[in-house]
Amino acid sequence: SQTIHQWPATLVQPVGSPLSLECTVEGTSNPNLYWYRQAAGRGLQLLFYSVGIGQISSEVPQNLSASRPQDRQFILSSKKLLLSDSGFYLCAWSVQDREHTFGSGTRLTVV
Amino acid sequence: DAKTTQPTSMDCAEGRAANLPCNHSTISGNEYVYWYRQIHSQGPQYIIHGLKNNETNEMASLIITEDRKSSTLILPHATLRDTAVYYCIAIIQGAQKLVFGQGTRLTINP
């Protein structure tokens, strides 16, 4: 069966520090991978998606970047965090015409 | 993707059926109606989807009107664990991106 792993579950980082969130998927090949963010009290916003290794599409201009070094690994990064980067970050995957499956999320607080 | 409209919030008594409406009047012929829910502090969870026929699974039933301009998600016997934000999304099956609206905040009351 397919599983998605996302870590850490919570993270507190100072302003200006770097960020690296990792997401891995097991049990499937060549999935579409996604990073979403949910600010406090707000809806889910798609940040990045990837249809293959090294292929990244950015949905909104921001302080973040994404990379896909391996087929089932998706990384969200920042060189210098801003206060506005705080939020709930969710990784998701899908294949072909199947529904999206989401990870358990990382709650990031920038202080 | 077609725009969907949902009530901001709804309440339902535990044990009763919860009926969540969604309007998608501009839906195109190849767009499916998908439902997801997000329990507090968790990732969204897929519930059900359909094109034009009514659908049922172990979680819920989906009723789509004949003109496909609206649909209703039915949780037949709501429990406290069904308290969540429910999102209705009209999208081509296999589309690469999901665009979430504000959804309906469903509260199940004891």
Task: List descriptors.
heterodimer, A: 111 residues, mainly beta, four-stranded antiparallel beta sheet, 11 strands, B: 110 residues, 0% helix, globular
SSE blueprint and pairings:
The complex is a heterodimer of chains A (111) and B (110).
Chain A: E1 3-7, E2 10-13, E3 19-26, E4 32-38, E5 44-52, E6 55-58, E7 65-70, E8 73-78, E9 87-94, E10 101-102, E11 106-110
Parallel strand pairs in A: 2-11
Antiparallel strand pairs in A: 1-3, 3-8, 4-5, 4-9, 5-6, 7-8, 9-10, 9-11
Chain B: E1 9-13, E2 18-23, E3 31-38, E4 45-50, E5 55-56, E6 61-64, E7 70-75, E8 84-92, E9 104-109
Parallel strand pairs in B: 1-9
Antiparallel strand pairs in B: 2-7, 3-4, 3-8, 5-6, 6-7, 8-9
Number of continuous helical runs of chain A: 0
Sheet having the most strands of chain B: 5 strands, mixed
Please write the string of helix (H) and strand (E) elements of chain B: EEEEEEEEE
Tell me how many strands of chain A there are: 11
* Global shape of chain A: globular
The ordered H/E elements of chain A are EEEEEEEEEEE
For the report, how would you describe the main beta sheet of chain A? 7 strands, mixed
Broad structural category of chain A: mainly beta
E-strand count of chain B: 9
N-C termini distance of chain A: 38 Å
The residue-averaged pLDDT of chain A reads 93
Question: How would you write the strand order of the largest sheet of chain B?
Answer: 1-9-8-3-4
Give the overall silhouette of chain B: globular
Secondary structure class of chain B reads mainly beta
How much helix, percentage-wise, in residues of chain B? under 10%
Q: What is the CA-based Rg of chain A, rounded?
A: 13 Å
Low-confidence stretches of chain B: none
Which segments of chain A are poorly predicted (pLDDT under 50) over 5 or more consecutive residues? none
